[in-house]
Design goal:
The chain has 22 helices and two strands. The chain is an all-alpha fold and 589 residues long. Among the domains are: 119 residues, no CATH class; 157 residues, no CATH class; 32 residues. Strands 1-2 form a two-stranded antiparallel ribbon. A hairpin with a 4-residue loop joins β1 and β2. α6 packs across α14, α11 packs parallel to α14 and α16 packs across α18. It is elongated, with a radius of gyration of 50 Å. It starts with 11 loop residues before the first helix and ends in a 23-residue tail after the last helix.
Amino acid sequence: MAPSTTATSSRPTRAVKKKAPASSATSTSAGGRKSQKTATQKATTTAEGTKAPAKRGRKPTSIAVAAATAKGVSPSCAAAAATDLGISAEELAIYNKLTARMTAMNKAQKEAADLEISTRNAQLMAAELEDEMESGSEADEDEAPPAKRPRRMVLDEDEQEMASALTSLPQINSLPEEEVYMSEEEDHEKQNRGSEDEQEEDIDHGDASQDPFQDASNVDSGDWGSLMDNGLQVTSTSNNASENSKAISEDTSSTTPSTRHSTPQSTRRKSSAGGKSSGKITENSFSEKVVLLARAAKDFMRMRFAYGDVFPPTDPAGRATFAWDIIKQSSQSTPALREALKEAAASETTKKDLITFAMYGRNAIMNSIVSKARTKVEGYYQLSGGPQKIKDDVEWLIQDGAFMYGDIELQKRTFNCNKPFGSDLIFTIIKSQWFPSSSRSKSDSTTTVALVKDGTLPVSMIIFVTAAIEHSLKEYSTGKQTHFDFTEELSKASYKTHFNVWKVLETKSSRWALFWPKDLFKRLLASSNALASTDQDIDEVSARHVAKVDFSELDRIAELAEADSISPSPQTGLTASSAPAPPAPGPSA
């Protein structure tokens, strides 16, 4: 039997019992079960369609009122509605408490269930992820490629400029090349020259396949001076292949270039007869006498390029004649070079190699200039902002030759029309090539000394640098930089265009045409210390410092001082005979 309780009990079982019609609100708990059963039967009868008395129909209405109260109806309104329906205040309070408690319990149960599900899902995902990682690591260990060795590039700014001019090797089938090593003289010279000369020496060898003595059918005049083959001379004849194979097998002391300086000099030195390897002509290709002429000829070729001999004949015979004339001119400076010229002329092989080696100087300086232009145009003209903007900017720069004028403002589309060939980029490239701020490079020191002697710049130098800048700008004509070779055909067309522009300026304003190269030279000289190490500059400064000295008087003073130290006087430390006479008046200052 259930214990007897009052109507105010808060237990849920008792709360349900209190939900009785108004007529039985005062019933005791002892008859609660019977009342609950009776109410349930009545509610079932009503749901099945049996007509219930009006008194019994108040129960659903009371529940609806209580639910409305729980949903936010004000307590006063809910109390009034309960009074109208005959629900006591105690019953309404019990219902509200039960509703709130059940809601809280349901919410707590739902949150606990959600937390348990989330925790289980997280554990499952973590376990699945761990399984995948373990299986993936095992597969990676089976299929992973070997780790690459880190590479380190150590290039200075000038070397990077030189390297940017190099093009990729063509796909060819050839035997492995034999390493070419420097002679002792060349090794010593290159260590003294510096990194820029080392890079240009590599570019010098970049055109070995362009032999001036080749048949006309094998010469592409448009590619002379380019680096299409990077200096590799590849032939398909079996004789040449066997010779190369034999040379490789005989040279057992070969090492890689990276270990060249650690190799004893005796293993690097080769005879002049075997100096030509893998198609390249190096200083090892010549005797000790002729190698001096080879160096002088290459330097003289670079100077003649700066002074206007930019484009030699395109036919092989004419090209060979042009180079040989340069070699003969370079040999006139000393008797030793003249003797070397006689020795070279006596051998067709030596003469041929000497011509090829001299032409390296021209090819190297061409590629050096265009490399400097390539690395500087983007920053100087501020080519940025997306492909379409770059394309529009380059089109404006090239269309009317705006790029070569001074005081250019790309965004405003303005320039100083009274400063033709006045671009600061022209000044910068000429300074970098022929008036460097350091004395590392001496490849063009002969040219620099000649420029100082003349006191002006050759017009051809200004024009070729302008052509190189135009070529570098055209590489951005699609909106992004696309390298293409600065071939002789392309450079000649651009050079001719700007040369014609200069001729017009010279005709219309001859005084300016004389003034501008001199003014440009003065500014270059003032901004550079390139001449600090030249012999001519040192001799001139030394001569000025002692120009007013009486050298005979210096000798007389020294002679008297020596005599005084030999026979001193007891009183004064000087003898009467050795006392120096008053010095004769020297030349006035």
